[in-house]
Amino acid sequence: MAITTSNANALIRAEVWSQQLKDILQEELFAQQWVDWMSDFPDGSSFTIPSVGQASTQDVVENEDIKYEALDTGEFNFTINEYIGSAHYITRKALQDSWYAQQVLASFIPKERRAIMEHVESKILNLHLNQTVGNANIINGADHRFIGTGTSETIAVADIAKAKFALKKANVPMTNLIGIVGPATAYSLDTLANIVNVSNNPNWEGIINTGLATGMRFVKSIYGFDIYESNMISTGNAETISLTTTTAEANMFFSADASVLPFKGAWRQMPQVDYEFNKDKQREEYVTTARYDVALYRPENLVTILCDDDQV
Asked: How many domains does the chain have?
């Protein structure tokens, strides 16, 4: 018997399928480390943290009464509002017939957890909205929210210096300074003529070697800020603060010093998986749920620079 390609069509597979499933590329998640997660929140959904102001001095005049003053007080109110879930199913028939069924089934739990963690990341990077939108949010005479002064409302080196100035004026420690920027702003930084040669980064090599963690997309260090890039930064912000931007990335600058973290958060329920076989619909069902929230806790330790995201 002679077998050639001309008479072996029945023996040749017209289409060959891989044993692997292609997965999408995922964004690195890293913002949770800059949240002060509360552990002393035993029950309920609302939590109050009192605050007290600074003492002042006065001139003392002999034989005259000293004036006694009360300290300014305030409170920070925190409420858990986020109750989220991710749920999927696969029918018994699909399990029996599909070559990829077990791979798909095994991906349910990690993908559902990932979806919840992406929700948390996105909410943290949207906390700039706890500032007053369309306002400079002036603290101690310095703007904590402004639009980039580069060409077409992109970022300029002076903007980063201004962010540092604002934090200094608010008595924020000049340690562990962090900037989180969107891809368009990172592009602007990469192509700014006066920092391509790292002229504003005298400690470049040391910072590269001592970055916060692996996996983060380190861009560069400018005026003490370690700049990181995230695709999950808030975008599409339309705002007027002296200048006007119609589609801006909200780039965030702050100190990650553990004693003054800008964000507060709490988990009422960490991601929890529930599974059951639905006998009526003849399918396996998986659901992952969580309860949490985050909020801007120290507005003095957050500077938002709004930069156009379409200037690439």
From this structure: 1
Instruction: Provide the domain limits for residue 174.
Output: 133-265+299-308
CATH number at residue 199: 3.30.1930
Cα–Cα separations (whole angstroms), residue 187 to 160, 229, 311: 15, 10, 9
Domain presence at residue 14: no
Q: What are phi and psi of 194, to 5 degrees?
A: -85, 5
3-state SS, residue 131:
coil
Residues of the chain with pLDDT under 70: 1-26, 193-219
Residues listed for the chain: 312
User: What is the pTM for the complete model shown?
Assistant: 0.84
- Assigned domain for 171 exists: yes
The owner of tokens 């958060």 is 265
Please tell me whether residue 36 adopts helix, strand or coil conformation: strand
Question: Alpha-carbon distance 232 to 115, whole Å?
Answer: 13
- CA separation for the pair 245, 72 (Å, rounded): 37
Those residues whose C-beta lies under 8 Å from the C-beta of residue 59, and which sit 6 or more positions away, are none
Tens of pLDDT along 95-154? 999 888 898 899 999 999 999 999 999 999 999 999 999 999 999 999 999 999 999 999
Angle at 298 between CA 292 and CA 302, to 5 degrees: 100
How many Å apart are CA 310 and CA 248, to the nearest integer? 8
Q: Which of 160, 159, 312 is nearest to 242 (CA)?
A: 159
| CA pair distance 274, 126, nearest whole angstrom | 29
> Is residue 174 in a domain?
yes
261 in a domain, yes or no? Answer: yes
User: 203 exposed, middle or buried (CB, 10 Å; 0-12, 13-18, 19+)?
Assistant: exposed
